[in-house]
UniProtKB/TrEMBL annotation:
Annotated positions binding substrate: 345
Keywords from the UniProt entry: Aminotransferase, Pyridoxal phosphate, Pyruvate, Transferase
One Gene Ontology MF term: 2-aminoethylphosphonate-pyruvate transaminase activity
Class of this enzyme: transferase
Gene: phnW
Name this polypeptide is given: 2-aminoethylphosphonate--pyruvate transaminase
Role according to the record: Involved in phosphonate degradation.
One Pfam match: Aminotran_5
Amino acid sequence: MTAFPDPELGEPYLLTPGPLTTSAEVKQAMLRDWGSWDGDFRAMTAEVRRRLLEIAGDTAGAYDCVPLQGSGSYCVEAMLGSFVPRDGKVLVLANGAYGLRAAETMRYLGRAFTLIDKGDYLPPRGAEVAQALAADPAITHVLAIHCETSSGILNPIPEIAEATAQAGRKLLIDSMSAFGAVPLDVRDLQVEAFVSSANKCIEGVPGFGFVIARKETLAGAKGNSHSLALDLHAQWATMEKTGQWRYTPPTHVVAAFVKALEMHRAEGGAPARLARYTRNRDTMVAGMRALGFETLLADSWLSPIIVTFFCPADPAFAFPRFYELMKDRGFIIYPGKLTVVDSFRIGCIGRMDDTVMNRVVTAAQQSLADMGVASAVPPASALAERANLAA
Ligand SMILES: *Cc1c(COP(=O)(O)O)cnc(C)c1O
């Protein structure tokens, strides 16, 4: 693969799932200005929409793609505000920060919701979704997180989709950190709409997200939205009519994204990307485990997107220092987001391969040595917490 960024040139790898490390080609694509009304830019927007629907498997033309300015959360809010009727009710499935953010969004919208909160990392299961839907006929929609990036767990979307469809309700998915690598195909899943953004598995730069939704859902969403700028029906209707975004588009970001989509296709599409990210994860996890580190999750729940590790028990270990030592070696890592035990995270996505991941492991080993940490084994309390998960 060409054009991996070179940290020797002073740019560290971002082992953080969005923003992430992008290719030189993607960065270069931003070096020219575009008129938002111009035919060339409108063609780029059309290309983006068409390619994303292709990745989603929409061969029947039942779905459409609506890009929207802002970060991923803007798209989640737009999806909830545009597709959930004002008298609708959402079952929010949370097991981390992004599920809780969706619930908070519902609270801001002032629309009804029920929350199933599984804590830091337990997966919401199909059976409990079925039970919750049977117990409350007022629920119209289910909101699920595909990969919950705060722990790295890959949630069981197929069984959640099955339970939702069985109960005759509509499924909305936050596939922000999964789409473009982890399978999400509208031919295999009964899904009303899902969202992702430019700066995750497609490996673009941040600045917009996109919603892929059934055309009938988009058409029926008129007048639902609480917000002018986040009204997906209006954005869609304008794009359909004029080929333009309603308000100033992030032109350079879109140009970079067109290049990122080209490279995604050249690599072999979502299956090839999944294979590379999986190799990244497997290489990195095996190396970290050899140093004594332990993952929060059992292998069956580990996503190829980001992995949570327990901090070592050794009192010489301090995460802020570990972070700086890793950065000195060219790698930006992520603090953990668990509420109960100390942890940190390492991302597997972005423009890098397993040779880079081997260097990450070496950097971790050297950083531990610099700190005088003899063993990366986590405290017994962390392992007890993990035993809870298995139970
Ligand atoms: C990145 C991400 C988001 C969006 O976060 P922003 O900071 O608004 O881009 C939402 N959900 C998940 C699961 C994510 O990984």
